[in-house]
Structures are given as structure tokens and as C-alpha cells.
Amino acid sequence: MKKCIFEDLIDDYLLNKLVEDRKEEFEEHYFNCPQCLEKIEERDEIISVIQNKGHMIFEDEYAVGAAEAGWFDKATSFLTPKQWAFATISSAIVLVVICGVIPNLKTTSPQFYINEDAVRGQKIDLISPVIDIREVPSKFEWKKSPKDVEYKIYLYNNGDLLWSALTKENLIVLPEEVRKLMTPGEKYSWQVKAFSPEGILTSVSSRVQFKISPTK
Amino acid sequence: MHEGKEAVAKKDKGLDLEEVITKYRSVISFRVKRSLGTYNPDWEDVVNEIITNVIEKVKKGGFRGESSIGTFIYTITSRRIVDYIRQKTKVMKYVQEPSPFPDPKEQVEKKERDELIAKSIKKLKPKYKDILYLYYFKGLSREEVARKLDISPRRVSERVNYSLKLLKKIIKQ
């Protein structure tokens, strides 16, 4: 059967979306069109059920009955789901670049802070000398950092800086002229700091004290 | 055009009034129930009054064939509905109308039918259930549904029609 030209108005009529003039025109039409009348009656029955029992019919799928998110639907309706997906993915990529990639292009900030003699966070473990010793140490050794760093060693005598030096290794031989300055019975302390190739401080050791036993 | 109109007028003037009652009762009933409400007990009386009015006018020569019989009956129906509403408004100003008391048998039949339709909708695939939910339950326009589902408005109409066709099939099964 050929489709009636008024058939497309059935839904709008049943959902009360037609303007008055059009509504009257359509009403007059279905008095003259058994085909449209049959469709209207069928559809009216279904629409009534959907509108009256929709909460029950669609409960499982759409959580109908929960607080209406009308404002959310309206706020998000200006983009299609595909456009939302594209916008979300693009935003995620931008965030990854900003938070992940860019910081790594810069030099790494030190992840520690020093509170008096205590060092929190990443620190360099000193190996020797860390306890009292019998003679002036010939070398100083510490745990090697996995990163590409340059170490600076500081040697103190009662809090005063006695000597410092730079090395790429995790140990340094004490120069003879410095050894001669060190005397038994005196308290000494030492500390190591690590610097990145760009010269940024990356980690620090605690300042460890040691004493050279007095000669008998 | 004029000959065609005369032909129509002759055919309609010679119409069988019983045929008119049979043929147009359902459309008059639909129109009246839609305006007065399905559970308004007066609807059947109003329909009967309209049919009586149509028969009287046809017998008295009120139908001159200038329009189709459908349009003639539509005009009488619309006027009677307006009169009824005006009358009811006047009455309700002074007297509290008792609540309408629907026919229990009709109620049971309707309830069973509604449940059958509801169960049939639940059996539809999500694609078709979605469209019925958005279009009829949420009351979104074709364009709004199209945006939500990322399809064209024309596709929305096609899918609605197809969903209803499927539903009709399930209900009949």
C-alpha cells in the first residue's frame, strides 16, 4: 500500500507536538484515511504504554527513576558521542605531553630535602670511613648512583671545610697534602653530593662523622 | 474537478447510514477519547450523541456533498467535543465532579494488553529499545535523538518505524 503523506505526522500528533492548525488538519485527515487511523490507533497504544510504564520497562538499562541528570544531558548534548570520544582522547594526549613528556625534557629536580644532618628522600649511602678509624683514611668510598652524575666530596674538620673535590667515580683517593693536615684524636666529617651533567644537585649523603684514634 | 466532486457527492449521499455508523464509530471514538480521556465514562455517550447527530443531519439533507463524509463527520465531532468541554467547565465551577469509574472488565483487558506490550518492548534488541526510550519516553526530538546516537534524523525515523514494526510482530506472536 502506498504511504500516505500525512503518515509522518502521526508521532508529532500523538506526542502533542503539532501546532493547532496543523493538528486540526491532521485530525480531519484521519477521519478520511482509514490507513492513517489504523496506524494512529496502533501507535497510540504503544506510546501510552511507554509513557506510563517506561520506568518499569527501561529500568534495567537506563536506571530510570534515579535522579534525572537533565542538566548533564543538556550540557553534553552539543557534541555527538564520537566528537566527545575524540575530544577526550585529544585532551588525554595533551595532558600526557604536559605532565609526562615536558618535565622529562628539563633537568630532574632533586627529590630530597635536608633537615640539619638528616637527609630525606634520595640519598647517597656512604661506605667508608663511617666509623672511628686507626689511621688517616687513604680513600673515601660511597655507593654508586645508577644515574649519570658527578660527585663532589666535602671533608670537614670540626665543622670547617677542610677539602673538597670532584669525581665521576664512587671513590676518591685522599691527596697526600690533605692527609698531612689530618691529625689523630680530631673529629672529622664528610659528605658527598651528586650533580647531574647539567650541574643540578640530584642527591646528597648524610654527613658522617669519624674520628682518627689517637696514637699511643 | 467539478464532475469528480459531484461523483463524490452522489456516492456519499447515497450512503448506507448503518455503514456510516460501522465505519466511523472507531475514528469518532478515538477522537473523543483523546480529548476527554480514556477513563472518562462520558466518552461513550458523547460518541453516541455524535453518531445520532450525523444521522439526523444526513436525513435532513445537511450533508450536501461539498466535502467528503469523513470531513463532515469530523466537523460534527470537533464541535461536540468543544461543547462538552465548555459544559463540563461550567458544571465543575459549582459542583465537584465525582471521580470517573472505569469499567472493571475493560480495565482488566487493558491492563493485560499493556503488560503484553511492555514485555514485548523488553524483548527488543538494545538498538531498537534505545530509540523507543529516547524518542517516546524521554520525548526528545528527531534531531536530538540523531545527535545522541550519531545518526541522521531520517535514520531516526526509519529506526522508529522499524522498531514499531518489530514490536507489532512480537505482540502478535
Architecture (CATH level 2) name of the largest domain in chain A: Sandwich
Task: Work out the strand percent of chain A.
Answer: 25-35%
Overall 3D geometry of chain A?
A: rod-shaped
Distance between the termini of chain A: 123 Å
Number of helices of chain B: 8
Radius of gyration of chain A: 41 Å
Q: In DSSP terms, counting alpha (H) and pi (I) runs of 4 or more, how many helices of chain A?
A: 7
Largest sheet of chain A: 6 strands, mixed
* Order of helical and strand elements of chain A: HHHHHHEEEEEEEEHEEE
In CATH terms, the superfamily of the largest domain in chain A is Immunoglobulins
Helix share bin of chain A: 25-40%
Largest sheet of chain B, if any?
none
Helical residues, percent of chain B:
over 70%
Largest interface in this structure: A-B, 36 and 38 residues
The CATH class name of the largest domain in chain A reads: Mainly Beta
Q: Would you summarize the structure shown here?
A:
The complex is a heterodimer of chains A (216) and B (173). Chain A is an alpha+beta fold and 216 residues long.
Structure in words:
Chain A has 216 residues and is an alpha+beta fold. Chain A has 7 helices and 11 strands. Chain A has helices at 10-14, 20-32, 34-57, 59-62, 70-76, 81-105, 176-179; strands at 112-115, 118-121, 123-124, 126-128, 139-142, 150-157, 160-167, 171-173, 187-195, 201-205, 208-211. In chain A, strand 1 and strand 2 (118-121) form a beta hairpin. The longest helix of chain A is centred in the middle third of the chain and has 25 residues, at 81-105. Mean pLDDT of chain A is 82; it is low at 64-69 and 110-120. Chain B has 2 domains: 2-94, Rna Polymerase Sigma Factor, Chain: A, CATH 1.10.1740; 104-172, Orthogonal Bundle (Arc Repressor Mutant, subunit A). In chain B, helix 2 crosses helix 4. The longest helix of chain B has 26 residues, at 69-94. The N and C termini of chain B lie far apart (47 Å). The A-B interface holds A 8, 11, 15, 24, 27-28, 30-33, 37, 40-54, 56-58, 61-62, 64, 77, 80-82 and B 24, 26-27, 30-31, 34, 68, 70-71, 73-75, 77-78, 113-114, 117-118, 121-122, 126, 129, 132-133, 135-137, 139, 144, 147-150, 157, 160, 164, 167-168.
